[in-house]
TrEMBL record:
Domain (TonB-dependent receptor plug): residue spans on this chain: 135-232
Membrane topology: Multi-pass membrane protein
Domain TonB-dependent receptor-like beta-barrel: 306-749
Keyword Ion transport: yes
Protein localization: Cell outer membrane
UniProt KW Cell membrane keyword: no
The species this protein was found in: Pontibacter populi
InterPro entries to which the protein is assigned, alphabetical: Beta-barrel_TonB, Beta-barrel_TonB_sf, Carb-bd-like_fold, Plug_dom, Plug_dom_sf, TonB-dep_rcpt-like, TonB_sidphr_rcpt
Classification of source organism: Bacteria, Pseudomonadati, Bacteroidota, Cytophagia, Cytophagales
Top-level taxonomic group: Bacteria
Major location category of this protein: membrane
Protein name (record): TonB-dependent receptor
Family indicated by similarity: Belongs to the TonB-dependent receptor family.
Length: 780
């Protein structure tokens, strides 16, 4: 699979360079004076029949335009018509943004009762630059999974969508109860998943019902976001309030016995349409493919936007999530051989309990001073808690020659986390001279967080994984003190960035951020002699300056080449043998690539070479194994390619391939040097394609499918053995018209046995077997 897919991708990149392009393309976005996206605005070339309308994100694409000079006209009911002169060249794409002022004329209410989920491919994103920009002009690798693509895949969990992002390997973490991935060879932590530009640190699966799109930016994101994993970040953009009225009710169910009713409502609350709302809510209940792991979830997410004037708007969002699901670390391997047990086999108990709560409140205030300056002030507060009472793996008996038994423990745990962050950003759009166009942002971020955890443990029993005997309810065992600590952190960041366009062909991206990170760690220490606790408080400060420089040049028509360099950092908590606090772990990204178009930019192609080096990695101190030192270095380099777009009318595709060589290059243990990273596939690829009938009585009927494929992956840091590679095939049939929508998805069509990931040789998560998931919904 890997070789065939790579040959196909190489051919698709060479083709647009070898074939002369004879037509052009116009794309962009239209917003109101209040900076809200406008749906259904007509965009056309005056004097021709060529045109289109905007989607619910305000985005539009006119795909086939003959070279020449035109007048581009944007108009809609209740808005002033705006015209703009454009010059289209063969093989090129023009990006035009419009701001449409509202008219003062009294109009009858226009009610839009149906809303599809926008375009399958979204060409514009904001994560990489903190301002909207066409991805083709940004000198960095960014991939977007749109809402429409997510709906066709019937995405319930984030990893259902992330399977179609190049360089991403599936992972499992925190006992299989939260979203963890490997991006470009590096494991993402809770520090690298964001929501609307704010860090979203939680220990349960994030709800997907109110996601508008996912943006994955490859490489360290510290230049704009501070603390960042080296491989990349995931930014979730949530659904926003709308001025048009719509209601969508749907029910999803699968063959594991799980069902999910959901609603998505939006509209204006007053005649002036200055107060708008959006409401998403989900209830989920049922079993999973794993024994003793059922799920019950309630989620509600209201959002409101109020327009104080044509220049000022405030959006307030909230999320309330209760999720009950026991943790599950999967199965074990004995002496490098994964236990050959059914996919549903559990090491836990029927009485295992996991109770999670997530709360979020976020507001975003925007004010446009004039055509040059605008201001954004936003804040985010999250609260999450987790209560676990679980029987789980604790070890393998040393004298067991049968390779069949595991020692289990009972753990009683409670943790909670509070995070607050505020961002203040000033944007400026201006020109210097005739050829230099600047889009500049200057920002300040202040964040505070607190994480508190305690747990007690006790020996439970020994279990034969091939012939398990479970208890109807958890046995009472003596619990011993495990740990109790609280981390209080503060982050102060100042950043600046300039996105410079020179004569429309050359793009330069320059930026830097300075961070101060402070930690106060409060440990509760138990004196076993007196059975009393005492507090031990330690503090640590890390500072970091992280720059970024990128360059993109339009070589010919739709073909651009780019390169970028950026630095990132992550605080490392701890001290050396000499008592010195650890320095931050730093990373450097070097990336070079090509962005191109095929069939007049209907298909977007990207390829990139990357090299990421991570320094100051904690390794064992050879003079005393009880301590660590920061001389470790690891490197991940490779190649990625993506194809996304509409290869024919109604036929959409997302195809990816990645080669990742991630290895240890410096360590105090010579035997570790050269070892591959745990959980990383050298070769991986995916394909998702759908065809939808565009007219006639069967209009809206679609069929599609694809696969995800991963090579073998080291199970542990010593690379003692590997998870086998696999290819999983999925399929879908769906129907979507103005009122009704329905879909049936079949996952793992060939019922292949595979493993999603591993935390260690004793925590290996089997993948889901063949399953069917269906959705039916109505709009009104």
């Amino acid at each position: 699979m890997s070789r065939s897919l790579l040959i196909l991708l190489v051919f698709l990149f060479v083709a647009p360079v070898a074939i002369a392009q004879s037509i052009g393309r116009i794309e962009g976005r239209i917003v109101s004076e209040r900076n809200e996206p406008l749906l259904g605005i007509s965009v056309a070339l005056q004097g021709t029949t060529v045109g289109t309308t905007t989607d619910e994100e305000g985005k539009y694409v006119i795909k086939s335009v003959a070279p020449g000079n035109y007048t581009l006209v944007a108009n809609g009911i209740g808005y002033t018509t705006v015209k703009r002169e454009v010059s289209v060249k063969g093989g090129s794409t023009i990006t035009e943004y419009f701001l449409l002022p509202s008219t003062a004329t009294e109009l009858n209410e226009v009610v839009i009762t149906a809303s599809k989920s926008g375009e399958f491919v979204q060409p514009i994103g904001s994560t990489a630059t903190k301002m909207e920009a066409p991805l083709k002009s940004v000198p960095q690798s960014v991939q977007i999974i749109s809402r429409r693509a997510m709906d066709q895949m019937q995405v319930i969990r984030l990893d259902d969508a992330m399977r179609n992002v190049s360089g991403v390997t599936m992972e499992t973490g925190f006992g299989g109860r939260t979203d963890i991935f490997q991006i470009r060879g590096f494991r993402t932590s809770t520090e690298s998943i964001f929501k609307n530009g704010f860090r979203n640190s939680v220990r349960t699966f994030r709800e997907t019902a109110n996601i508008q799109q996912l943006e994955v930016m490859k490489g360290p994101a510290s230049v704009l976001y501070g603390v960042s994993d080296p491989g990349g970040m995931v930014n979730i953009t949530t659904k926003k309030p709308t001025a048009f009225t719509f209601h969508d009710i749907q029910l999803t169910a699968n063959s594991f016995g799980q069902y999910r009713p959901a609603i998505d409502f939006g509209g204006a609350l007053n005649e002036e349409k200055t107060l708008k709302y959006r409401l998403n809510a989900v209830y989920e209940d049922g079993d999973t493919y794993r024994d003793f792991v059922s799920t019950k979830r309630f989620f509600v997410a209201p959002a409101f936007t109020y327009d104080f004037s044509d220049r000022t708007s405030l959006t307030v969002e909230a999320e309330y999530l209760d999720h009950d699901q026991a943790s599950d670390r999967g199965i074990v391997a004995f002496n490098g051989v994964i236990a050959d047990v059914p996919t549903n086999r559990s090491i836990g108990e029927p009485g295992n309990v996991g109770i999670h709560q997530n709360r979020l409140v976020q507001y975003n205030l925007q004010h446009r001073f004039n055509n040059m300056f605008s201001l954004r002030h936003a804040s985010n507060f999250t609260y999450s808690s987790e209560q676990r009472t679980v029987v789980e793996f604790a070890g393998i008996p040393k004298k067991d020659d049968s390779n069949s038994k595991v020692i289990r423990r009972l753990q009683d745990q409670y943790n909670f986390e509070r995070n607050f962050a505020t961002q203040n950003e000033l944007y400026a759009t201006f020109k210097t001279g005739a050829a230099f166009e600047h889009k500049t942002v200057v920002g300040v971020e202040v964040a505070r967080s607190m994480f508190d955890i305690w747990y007690n443990r006790g020996n439970y029993d020994t279990l034969n994984v091939y012939n398990p005997k479970y208890n109807s309810k958890l046995k009472q065992v003596k619990l011993n003190f495990g740990d109790d600590y609280r981390d209080n952190t503060q982050l102060y960041g100042v950043y600046v960035q300039d996105f410079l366009s020179i004569s429309q062909k050359l793009k330069v991206l320059l930026g830097a951020r300075y961070d101060i990170w402070d930690l106060e760690k409060v440990n509760q220490k138990l004196d076993k002699a007196t059975n009393t606790f005492s507090e031990v408080i330690t503090t640590q400060r890390n500072t970091a300056l992280n720059p970024r420089a990128g360059l993109l040049y339009e070589v010919a028509g739709p073909v651009s080449v780019y390169g970028n360099w950026s630095k990132g950092f992550q605080p490392e908590v701890g001290r050396t043998k000499d008592g010195e606090a650890f320095e931050p772990v730093t990373s450097d990204l070097y990336e070079a690539g090509i962005k191109s178009g095929l069939l007049n930019d209907k298909i977007n192609l990207k390829a990139a070479y990357f090299n990421i080096t991570r320094r100051n990695v904690e390794v064992t101190d050879p003079s005393d194994n009880a301590y660590s030192m920061q001389i470790g270095k690891v490197r991940s380099e490779g190649f990625e390619a993506d194809v996304t777009g509409e290869i024919a009318t109604g036929l959409n595709v997302i195809a990816t391939y990645s080669y990742t060589d991630a290895r240890i290059v410096k360590d105090t243990k010579a035997t570790n040097i050269g070892k591959r990273f745990r959980g990383v596939s050298e070769h991986s690829g995916s394909l998702w394609t759908t065809y939808e009938i565009q007219d006639g009585p069967m209009k809206g009927l679609g069929i599609g499918g694809g696969f995800t494929s991963f090579g073998d992956r080291p199970v542990d840091a010593a690379d003692s053995f590997r998870l086998p590679g696999y290819t999983r095939y999925d399929g879908t049939v769906y129907y979507d018209n103005q009122k009704y929508h329905a879909a049936i998805n079949v996952r793992n069509l060939t019922n292949v046995k595979y493993y999603d990931g591993s935390q260690s040789a004793t925590a290996i998560m089997p993948g889901a077997p063949l399953s069917v998931q269906g959705t039916i919904g109505v709009r009104f």
